[in-house]
Amino acid sequence: MPASVNVPINSRGKLASSLPAEQLAEIAELFEYRREGFSLDAPFYTEPAIFKIDMQAIFGQHWLFAASVAELPEPGDYVTVDYGPYSLIILRNDDGGVNVMHNVCRHRGARVLTQPAGSTGNMVCGYHAWTYSPNGDLIHASAPGETKFDKSCFGLKRAHGREYAGLIFVCIADEAPTDFDETAKVFEPYLVPHDLPKTKVAYQQNIIEEANWKLVMENNRECYHCDGHPELACSLFPTWGLTEGLIPQHLEAVWDRSKEAQAALEERCRRYGIPYEVFEELDTRVAGIRISRESLDGDGESFSADGHRLSKKLLGDLPDFRLGRCSMHLQPNSWFHFLGDHVITFAVFPINEHQTLVRTTWLVADDAVEGDDYDLDKLTYTWKQTNLQDKEFVELCQNGANSPAYEPGPYMKSEYQVEAFINWYVQRVQEHLA
Questions:
Q1: Predicted pLDDT at 44
Q2: Where is the Rieske domain (predicted)?
Q3: What is the pLDDT of residue 5?
Q4: pLDDT tens digits for 214-231?
């Protein structure tokens, strides 16, 4: 069950203006005639009007991964999350749950908290010192001559918050989708052994990619391009996503090795009672998910050049470092790697139609000591390099979408998860437009 539930009060922000009916009809037609198995038409990646719809239909209606509990370990700890026109405060309350509030002062709209993270008691707007309690109630707004001011009418607007297995999710819709609890029941058994509440942040990286958020997500949902990740390919089998009959000749030996490693991993998981099976419903439920536990190359422990562990401290009550990676994809904005020695979370936050913030956070056991138990540069090296490479790839795609010569191209069989993501996206937007 979730650690807390916040009830929103008029939480869905209204964008500045509705789209003209003619333009909305043209956009609806683009969605209606989207060609299955092909990339989207250029306007999906370039047009501000479609980005505006994405903010309403996707980021304004669905559950988003926002942070981990390691980022909010104590009451009063907070993070701020910005995407599109929205800014949210996620604050750990005294009961151990989370309060989620729009980061917009009810006086004249100033940002209340201006730092990406910190710790606070009451929240004080830096403009006119309007002061809010940790649950968003307005408790101070004194001004000369104001005698009949009703502070109870001007608390911060609330949003929904959920915490599952150490991951925090938010939703700003008036009525959040109700199926997320069912999706959480799927992934919690995979994640609980890693015990995220007993982890700490080793490092967090923020990269702005000059590309539409959908291109960022599409890139993540396939490994067709993984030859472009030499550091990652040392431990992650570049045959991920392939099946018999799709293996190129130069990867046949790698494919055979990956099957042997996977069989050994599954035997260990059965012995320890740790789930490993593939569960995949990326576009057949509102809260789309794929999760599985998959082998790594080399020692099979972590994302290093030889697959050996990068931290000496096992997470939670895991019995063995040789547990590969538990990989999870959640629609619409996140993916994760849970290993025996550390966890990596990835969150995607759109900025505008051609810029996206990708936030990567490395978590280690809370008693792991930097310099003794792990080397920070080695811990983060593989995915820092991979993120920079992915940034170049998606920016190449954005440049292409901007060209008059662009037209949608076919997805390959190994890119079926990209098609599933796009199909999920199109379904959700069409539901919203209807």
A1: 97
A2: 63-170
A3: 40
A4: 999 999 999 889 889 999
> Looking at residue 238, what is its pLDDT?
72
DSSP 294-339: E--STTSSSSSTTS--SBSSPPTT-S-S---EEEEEETTTEEEEE-
422's enclosing H/E stretch is helix 416-433
Q: Roughly how many angstroms between the first and final C-alpha of the chain, as a whole number? A: 32
How far lies 285's CA from each of 33, 38, 135, 180, 428, in Å?
Answer: 22, 21, 32, 9, 10
Residue 77, Cα to own-chain centre: how many angstroms? Answer: 20
Please report how many Cα atoms fall inside a 13 Å half-sphere around the Cα of residue 243, on the Cβ side.
5
Place of tokens 């996503």: 241
Q: What are residue 229's phi and psi, to 5 degrees?
A: -125, 75
**Degrees (nearest 5) of the Cα angle 28, 33, 37?**
125
Alpha-carbon torsion (304, 310, 316, 320), positive or negative: positive
Q: Which long-range contacts (CB under 8 A, 24 or more apart) does 247-255 make?
A: 254/297
Question: Can you tell me the distance from the alpha carbon of 138 to that of 125, in angstroms, rounded to the nearest whole number?
Answer: 11
Task: List, in order of start, the domains of the chain with CATH numbers.
Answer: 21-33+63-164 (2.102.10.10), 180-413 (3.90.380.10)
CA separation (Å) from 172 to 11, 188, 338?
A: 6, 23, 27
Among the listed residues 10, 174, 17, the one whose alpha carbon sits nearest the alpha carbon of residue 85: 17
Q: Which two tokens stand for residue 245?
A: 């009959």
